[in-house]
Amino acid sequence: MDARLDYFASPTAGRVFKHVMTAGKIIHDSPLPAATQELVALRVSQINGCAVCVDMHTKEAAAAGESAVRLHLVAAWREATVFTEAERAALEFAEQGTRVADAGAGVSDEVWERAARHYDTEQLTALTLLVSFMGLVNRLNVIARNPAGDYRPGQFAARA
Question: Which Gene3D superfamilies match (predicted)?
Answer without folding.
Answer: AhpD-like
